[in-house]
Amino acid sequence: xxxxxxxxxxxxxxxxxxxxxxxxxxxxxxxxxxxxxxxxxxxxxxxxxxxxxxxxxxxxxxxxxxxxxxxxxxxxxxxxxxxxxxxxxxxxxxxxxxxxxxxxxxxxxxxxxxxxxxxxxxxxxxxxxxxxxxxxxxxxxxxxxxxxxxxxxxxxxxxxxxxxxxxxxxxxxxxxxxxxxxxxxxxxxxxxxxxxxxxxxxxxxxxxxxxxxxxxxxxxxxxxxxxxxxxxxxxxxxxxxxxxxxxxxxxxxxxxxxxxxxxxxxxxxxxxxxxxxxxxxxxxxxxxxxxxxxxxxxxxxxxxxxxxxxxxxxxxxxxxxxxxxxxxxxxxxxxxxxxxxxxxxxxxxxxxxxxxxxxxxxxxxxxxxxxxxxxxxxxxxxxxxxxxxxxxxxxxxxxxxxxx
Amino acid sequence: xxxxxxxxxxxxxxxxxxxxxxxxxxxxxxxxxxxxxxxxxxxxxxxxxxxxxxxxxxxxxxxxxxxxxxxxxxxxxxxx
Lengths: 404, 80
What we know:
The complex is a heterodimer of chains A (about 400) and B (about 80).
Chain A: E1 14-19, H1 28-43, E2 49-52, E3 60-65, E4 81-85, E5 96-99, E6 104-105, E7 113-114, H2 115-126, H3 155-165, E8 225-229, E9 232-237, E10 240-245, E11 248-255, H4 256-259, E12 269-273, E13 278-283, E14 286-291, E15 294-295, E16 301-302, E17 317-321, E18 326-331, E19 334-339, E20 344-345, E21 351-352, H5 353-356, E22 366-370, E23 373-378, E24 381-386, E25 391-397
Helix pairs in contact in A: 1-2
Chain B: H1 8-23, H2 34-51, H3 62-68, E1 72-73
């Protein structure tokens, strides 16, 4: 963790805050709840108490604004800088500003930035914390979407704020790091509505068990989806990504949320239309289009928008043939051919996969075109096919791309 | 992700702005000190790579640009 030069901090335990205006992206009550919960995170691990004021000058003034907004740090439009806040002090000291050009939300799965997560970070600055270089810490400078229902401060965040203010007076009724607290503790902001039920019904407090990433060379490794992206190849399974690039020798291990924070994990299919620098991701009956990191506006769309009949609820795999400009979609034992130029399904489909793809007599989990050949993944095997000459060339393990 | 070639010049501008905003980089205005400017920028790139645990090369490579393009907080990571 870090603090600001000369360690500015509030020289009192009762700190006031005021919400000066609201974003039109969210209900006012959702904005108030997100900010109250963000304060609660910090009050649950310090002696600080936060009181909301409705007029006059508060220590921490919270506002939404776009572009130039009266301080020396203008906002930059959508993306980039999301918000900033000032260290404790008089006047603008402690104030937190949120970029209205962002799309603010109370969710963490759709397009937009979760206000609770960003507010909790900015209020860390309002209390005197600087940035942390601990990946995953709340005070890490880069936004990372994560589940907010059971959000916990990392030890680095707690060490930082307690270096400034010490630990809570009495032992809190709850585990110090649980969030949201199951019932109001002494430290909750006094203005928070008495009914403390969190917006999402509290689920059983079982810690979420995220499945661990399988070993690269696990012979039983299977994939949900595979796509190229600007010369690289991305392999998806659950929330994990294996990234193979001609620019660096080792396989890079990432998560979907580290590239596209607002996309949910568990893709069914993915493919790149290289000439448009565009990758499409499919999950259930929806699909998204991205260019690099940015998700194109107007998504998700329903797959019926591509021409699938209502009877198709999801697709298994997709691959774009860069030579013919057509994309093959695989559903069960059938496949469709989609013309990227006319943006429509070609006539005479669906057809049986086995009729046109030599040696592929089963469903397809994922598909890839590389160096003119096609690779169809089924379970822990992949089938290399030369579709021009309708020839199955060889069968390999699905992870043969990982230099095992 | 790899940078689409024609973006390279833009990316250099973007990186300068990023380092000014978050790593206290100050570009020399007069062209006399271009080489010193470049060294100064390389040092700042190293500082940013070290903060984010990237390989410290001083080069404006893809991973470094990727990191710079992530949505983030507007407060500097280091302060003079």
